[in-house]
Amino acid sequence: MAERKAVIPPDQVEARLAAELPKWRLEDGWIRRTYKTQSWKSTLMVINTVGHLAEAAWHHPDITASYAWVEVRLMSHDAKGITDRDFELAKKIESVIQWQPGLEGGALEGTPQGDQRFAYVKYD
Q1: Where are the alpha helices (DSSP H) in the chain?
Q2: Is 72 exposed, middle or buried (0-12, 13-18, 19+ CB in 10 A)?
């Protein structure tokens, strides 16, 4: 368990972000990601999704939001830095928020594209 709480040096954080989470960045001691959404409804769904994942993981990010974006910030407060826990939760958040079932070719169509009534996350 001690390894999970070991602080990762900033140069290694940067290298891991580039390799594992290229849309995330290291800034002011946090790893951060801003998700662009289409509306307040979408913003709330992203916040609730992140909240569910964080509670299930028992590792809680800081979240800042506005009408059409959500910023997620992760740092292990008890370790006073970035740890493997931050990377693991960031990967889970990324995979769920960026999931586009319509691109997988299965039975799930995904959110209709091109119709603003159904606009959701602005996918990367």
Answers
A1: 10-20, 40-57, 84-97
A2: buried
Structure tokens at 72: 């997620």
3-class secondary-structure state, position 91:
helix
Residue 116 has what pLDDT?
78
Q: What is the pLDDT of residue 26?
A: 98
pTM check: above 0.90: yes
Q: How far apart are CA 16 and CA 18, in angstroms?
A: 5
For the chain, residues with pLDDT lower than 70 are 1-4
Q: What is the pLDDT of residue 4?
A: 63
Residue whose structure tokens are 């009408």: 67
Q: What is each CA distance from 71 to 13, 17, 116, in whole angstroms? A: 19, 16, 23
**CB within 8 Å of 24: residues ≥ 6 apart:** 17, 31, 32, 33, 90, 94
